[in-house]
Amino acid sequence: MRIALINENSQAGRNSVICNALKEVAEPMGHQVVNYGMYSADDAAQLTYVQNGILAAVLLNSGAADFVVTGCGTGEGAMLALNSFPGVICGHIEDPLDAYTFSQINAGNAVSIPYALKFGWGGDLNLKYIFEKLFCEEAGGGYPKERAVPEKRNKKILDDVRAAAFKDLPTILKALDKDLVKGALAGEHFDEYFKRDCKDPAYLKLVEELKK
């Protein structure tokens, strides 16, 4: 699984801490971590949490990423932004239990973590434990296990509801403020990583158009 890490501007200074914890846990499991930044508060490309949602949606819908780890100060804004787009189911994760139950019950493809609230001594350990429980089992296994069948049924119902509720992503992106979208795709290594990992040629063409 390819896991994309995205940080918005208020928590950009924590990027290396988050990336190190994520790699320490995910890479031995056979996953690949791709760090899309922001890498520091001084980055030329300044991402807001709304732009986190745009970037995450492009990565997930194009196949460039299978999972997105993001967040903001409280985790709420980034979670809401990501869930504003089709093809994205993002959970708000504060601790390892949140991570495990979200993975097993909701089987989403993104998480938003609060990087300012309660992130004091031991914050790096909490991140590590979150990632351990998030990726320790295949998503959607159910919790408790005897609830797996109805939980999978409910997840399918939710997917169908969301498919009916959303327009397709290219239509949405073209309707948004052009500078907002361009800024979301302006990261230092975005072009390099996206062109390498994107699985859908139509999204490669779309991104080229959006960045003009």
Précis, in short:
By secondary structure, the protein is an alpha/beta fold. The protein is 50% helix and 10% strand.
Task: Please tell me about this protein's structure.
The protein starts with a strand and ends with a helix. The chain has ten helices and five strands. It is globular, with a radius of gyration of 16 Å. It has a five-stranded parallel β-sheet, with helices on both faces. The protein is 50% helix and 10% strand. It has 212 residues and is of the alpha/beta class. The protein has helices spanning 15-26, 49-62, 76-82, 96-106, 123-135, 148-165, 169-175, 178-184, 190-197, 201-210, and strands at residues 2-5, 32-35, 67-72, 90-92, 110-114. Helix 2 runs parallel beside helix 3 (76-82) and helix 2 packs across helix 8.
Within the largest sheet, what's the order of strands?
A: 2-1-3-5-4
User: How large is the count of helical segments?
Assistant: 10
Could you state the order of secondary-structure elements as H and E? EHEHEHEHEHHHHHH
Q: What percent of residues adopt helix (DSSP H or I)? A: 40-55%
Structural class: alpha/beta
Q: Count of DSSP E strands?
A: 5
Main sheet, how many strands, which sense, barrel?
5 strands, parallel
Q: How far is it from the N-terminal to the C-terminal residue, by CA?
A: 31 Å
Give the overall silhouette: globular
**Average predicted confidence as pLDDT:** 96
Given as residue ranges, the uncertain stretches (5+ residues, pLDDT < 50) are none
Strand portion: 5-15%
| Rg value | 16 Å
